[in-house]
Amino acid sequence: MNGSTQSRGKGSWMQTWSGGRFFPMDPNPDDINPDDIAHALGMLCRYNGHVDQFYSVAEHCLHLSYMVSPENALWALLHDATEAYVGDMIRPLKQHMPDYVAAENRVMWAICDKYGLDRKMPAQVREYDTRILLNERERFITRAPGGDWGNDDLEPLPGLGFFAYGPADAARTWLRRLEHLTGVNRQDVYGEDDLAFTTAHHLKGNR
What we know:
Elements: E1 14-15, E2 21-22, H1 34-43, H2 57-67, H3 73-78, H4 83-86, H5 91-94, H6 98-115, H7 123-140, H8 167-182, H9 200-203
Antiparallel strand pairs: 1-2
Helix pairs in contact: 1-8, 2-8
């Protein structure tokens, strides 16, 4: 949604789920709202929807946050948070869209600044974000035609199970994970009790 450019931000603004304004070309950490991120990532389907059943970006980020080392967990949870503001572009197309990548990077830097993270993605998060594609392909893309995705020399992440949460459950669980990692509790904007997010590998070490 485009709007007036008369306020602080540069360029057109989008209205977020919470009712705020966000300027994708002029991102400000103060405009980053975790409720918006949780809701949007819960609604976004991975692989541009080319999956056997709904699988959200929010759940993808959740899994990654539990698989990496604890010091990288927050970065992993937020690594696709930009998609709440600039959308999810498939990798084969993204490689040819430098202007999009530049805008996405600016939004990611604003998110990092808000949460006190180094702006550079940790190497482990980048590696695991590629390895998890193998797990997701096996689980959600059963009609895959074969062939190398460019990551077949890697190993899938061990012990990873999927839930295929619906949008609201995925969003709520993502938000709870953020609260746990940041130590900041927020009102449950979905109006329900905590959703149990319990599998053996998620509970391991009580990260």
